[in-house]
Amino acid sequence: MAKFVALVSGKGGTGKTTSALNLGQAFINTGKKAIVVDANLTTPNLALHLGVLQPKSTLNQFLRKESSLNDILHTHPSGLSFIPASPSYAEFKRTDSATLGNLFNHLENIADIIVVDAPSGLGQDVENVLRLCDEALVVVNPTPSSMMDALKTIKLAEKNETPISGALLNMSHNGRHELSVKEVEEILGHAVIANVKHHRKFRKALHQHVPLAYRYKRSGLSKEFTKLANYLSLEHSA
Q1: Fewer Cβ close by (within 10 Å): the C or N end of the chain?
Q2: 201 — phi, psi (to 5°)?
Q3: Among 24, 32, 30, which residue's Cα sits nearest to residue 82?
Q4: According to DSSP H, which parts of the chain are helical?
Q5: What is the signed CA dihedral for 183, 184, 186, 191, rounded to 10 degrees?
Q6: For the chain, first and last CA: distance in Å?
Q7: pTM, whole model, 2 decimals?
Q8: Any idea what DSSP says for residue 97?
Q9: Are 136 and 232 in contact (CB under 8 A)?
Q10: Are 55 and 15 in contact (CB under 8 A)?
């Protein structure tokens, strides 16, 4: 059975979607079958990051029983499998996030890991994702405001009895004028599993519509996502 890992953050802008894509790619690089799901029905960006502006078949259509799982499961040239949500406001209004469990039931036997790009914030749509996932990975930036937002998300996960696997510290700047890894761990009460630096290679990969972990597979940045994937895989096999 697949393990469902939600990537969560208290607010947008932490790099959650980029992290979800690169974590999914890292699983593929290590030989795992992984699928990345855009569960952010309000403001989905996962497909856009991969160069797909208007996906023909989406999660929204599946949840309304208008498309099959095979229809909405897309494969990127990098080998990454992903399920996009529709960027259409009209589609968003016609979709009930409470039915997301229908998709998860179909996915649990076809992959090792399902990486779920959860909505930002603390709303009901986030709770729906947390309840369905086996654990949550908190994506944070090394700033006090990001820490405070992340703490709220951790409380929300605890309310829904969703274990926190740890934190992904994203967009750090080598410790200059920012919180250290130790400080982040002390504030959150959870270990930082990977520390991903802010780097122009992310912008280059985004411009080319590919995950950094595919375009720059041997980079130190990619190795941090590999370390994260290996950590989650070990928990998965335990």
Answers
A1: C
A2: -65, -30
A3: 24
A4: 16-29, 46-49, 59-63, 69-72, 89-93, 101-107, 124-132, 144-159, 181-188, 200-207, 212-215, 220-237
A5: -130
A6: 13
A7: 0.95
A8: G
A9: no
A10: no
Q: What angle do CA 92, 160, 103 make, to 5 degrees?
A: 40
With tokens 């690169």, the residue in question is 22
Looking up tokens 């994702």, which residue turns up? 129
Per the structure, the complete domain to which residue 218 belongs is given by 3-237
Q: What are the beta bridge partners of residue 167?
A: 138, 192
The pLDDT of 83-100, averaged and rounded, is 95
How far is Cα of residue 100 from the mean position of the Cα atoms in its chain? 16
Q: Which CATH number does the domain housing residue 183 bear?
A: 3.40.50.300
Phi-psi region of 149 (alpha: psi -120 to 50; beta: other; left: phi over 0): alpha
Q: What is d(CA 114, CA 215) in angstroms, rounded to the nearest whole number?
A: 22
In DSSP terms, which residues pair with 114 in a beta bridge? Answer: 4, 35
Q: Contact at 8 Å (CB) between 4 and 114?
A: yes
**109-161 pLDDT per residue, tens:** 999 999 999 999 999 999 999 999 999 999 999 999 999 999 999 999 999 99
- Quick check: 34 and 113 in contact, CB under 8 A? yes
Read off the tokens for 77.
Answer: 């040239």
- Asked if residues 5 and 113 have their Cβ atoms less than 8 Å apart, the reply is yes
Q: Indicate the length of the chain as a whole number.
A: 238
**Cβ contacts of residue 137 below 8 Å, gap of 6+?**
5, 6, 7, 8, 23, 164, 165, 166, 167, 168, 193, 228, 232
Average pLDDT of the chain is 95
23 contacts: CB under 8 Å, gap ≥ 6: 5, 7, 36, 115, 137, 213, 225, 228, 229
- Does residue 238 register a pLDDT over 60? no
